[in-house]
Recover the amino acids of this structure.
């Protein structure tokens, strides 16, 4: 029986024969499927798939239907609290006070946009365009795997199935991505909570039901919780706004890592077979979708991936560590509740926060919360030794940032001296801040 991916003595052959028979494909006396009946079945499946997907809009050239992704993400949203959301007045006060306190402690000016409040569906809608960019390399890897599986063959059976296999792999990725985004939207406290700039312009966007859920489980006054989170997100967005290179740099690293992803061919065939089984793109459970997708990655990373992942992990740690250090500096003498709230966030990160969850689910990458603690210590030591202006001057250019080696010895980094020598420091910093402007980031539109 001439079926791609299966040897004649494969123990699954009998199951495959039964499946093909149920699909209406005639099996000849020699065990070979009839090409005419197979063509009719595949064409019918493609029409069914296209009909399913047409309701979600166009499918892009990579094979992913983003309307389908959005639909799955919204279906995957967890039920949130219907009451207890922070009011506009409470958050307006929190963001306003956060900006006042940050003015004294960081070199980066305020962003030009006003803060906004999102619900969970807003988070999905406003960040979806960024995810399109992030997963393109992953789709390329999946496409390359199918290409390698079907290369150097003139197998008629394989030729017939190829369009359906590609459509099924696109549905597999789209479903898994939608499920992952739904999970992220159900837990992210803000637009930048994942550590990546997911909006085209720096924007303090706070996810109101998630903040309400987060605050409800704490013993601290809600006003302190709102202020603490506003400080963190305002600081993060000021950093994004003042460093126009940061978003593209992060995206380039994610792309580089994803381009090296290798696919387990057998697991991919099994996962796609599940998608082909009745074209269950909409019917598959969330758990089925995620488990099927997680199996397709080869567990062993390439040397290039290890190197890229270390750089990505270091940069994400430097961002969140800087936010930790700035928040600590701003709140230590002003907010008695800050220490307890910081510990809550550390436990949340150690248990698998939004950044860790996203990278592991979508790319099979593991991030270490320990590196964020190392980065926070490095920035604190630098500020204590040289002041906050020189601490922030390290963000002038990616080549000036601390390295993974520096994270291993924060005190040595802090003692090295100014990142900009002599009298040029003040001028270089001023020129940099003036040229960056409040809206320097590039990327997908924050308004979806």
């Amino acid at each position: 029986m001439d079926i791609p991916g299966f040897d004649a003595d494969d123990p699954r052959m009998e199951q495959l024969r039964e499946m093909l028979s149920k699909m209406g494909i005639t099996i000849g006396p020699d065990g070979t499927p009839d090409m005419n009946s197979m063509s009719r079945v595949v064409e019918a499946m493609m029409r069914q798939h296209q009909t399913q997907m047409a309701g979600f809009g166009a499918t892009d050239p990579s094979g992913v239907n983003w309307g389908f992704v959005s639909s799955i993400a919204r279906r995957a949203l967890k039920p949130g609290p219907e009451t207890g959301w922070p009011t506009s007045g409470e958050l307006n006060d929190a963001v306003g006070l956060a900006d006042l306190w940050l003015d004294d402690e960081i070199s980066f000016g305020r962003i030009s946009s006003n803060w906004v409040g999102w619900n969970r569906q807003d988070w999905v809608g406003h960040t979806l365009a960024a995810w399109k960019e992030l997963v393109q390399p992953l789709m390329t890897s999946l496409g390359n795997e199918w290409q390698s599986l079907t290369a150097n063959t003139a197998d008629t059976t394989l030729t017939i199935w190829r369009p359906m296999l590609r459509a099924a792999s696109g549905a597999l990725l789209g479903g898994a991505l939608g499920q992952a985004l739904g999970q992220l939207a159900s837990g992210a406290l803000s637009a930048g909570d994942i550590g990546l700039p997911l909006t085209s312009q720096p924007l303090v966007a706070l996810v109101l039901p998630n903040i309400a859920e987060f605050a409800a489980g704490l013993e601290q006054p809600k006003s302190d919780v709102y202020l603490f989170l506003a400080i963190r997100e305002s600081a993060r967005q000021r950093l994004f706004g003042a460093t126009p290179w940061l978003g593209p740099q992060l995206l380039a690293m994610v792309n580089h890592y994803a381009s090296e992803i290798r696919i387990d061919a057998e697991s991919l065939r099994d996962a796609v077979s599940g998608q082909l089984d009745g074209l269950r793109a909409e019917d598959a459970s969330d758990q089925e979708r995620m488990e099927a997708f997680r199996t397709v990655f080869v567990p062993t990373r390439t040397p290039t991936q290890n190197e890229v992942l270390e750089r990505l992990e270091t940069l994400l740690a430097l961002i969140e560590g800087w936010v930790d250090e700035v928040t600590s500096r701003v709140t230590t003498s002003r907010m008695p509740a800050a220490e307890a709230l910081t510990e809550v966030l550390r436990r949340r990160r150690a248990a698998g926060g939004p950044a860790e969850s996203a990278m592991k689910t979508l790319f099979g990458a593991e991030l270490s919360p320990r590196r964020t603690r190392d980065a926070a210590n490095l920035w604190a030591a630098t500020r204590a030794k040289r002041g906050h202006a020189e601490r922030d001057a390290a963000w002038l250019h990616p080549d000036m940032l601390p390295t993974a080696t520096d994270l291993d010895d924060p005190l040595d980094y802090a003692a090295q001296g100014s990142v900009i020598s002599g009298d040029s420091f003040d001028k270089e910093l001023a020129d940099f801040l003036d040229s960056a402007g409040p809206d320097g980031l590039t990327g997908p539109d924050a308004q979806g």
In short: Residues 67-436 form one domain. The chain has a mean pLDDT of 78. Strands lie at 116-118, 205-207.
